[in-house]
Amino acid sequence: MKPLTIFDIAGRGMAAQKTRLNTVASNIANAGSIAGNKDDAYRALRPVFETVYPTFQKDAGVSTVDTVDVERSSRDPERRHMPGHPLADADGFVYATNVDVNEEMVDMMEASRQYQNNIEVIATAKNLILKTLSVGK
Amino acid sequence: MRIADISLSKRDGKAAMNVLDKFLQPHGAALQLRQKRMEMLSSNIANAATPNFKAQDIDFSSAYRNAVTGFGALETTSPLHLSHPGGGVAEVRYRTPLSTSLDGNTVELHVEQLQFSENAMRYEASLNFLSDRINGLRKALKGE
Question: The sheet that has B56-58: what strands, in order across it?
Answer without folding.
Answer: B3-5, B89-94, B56-58
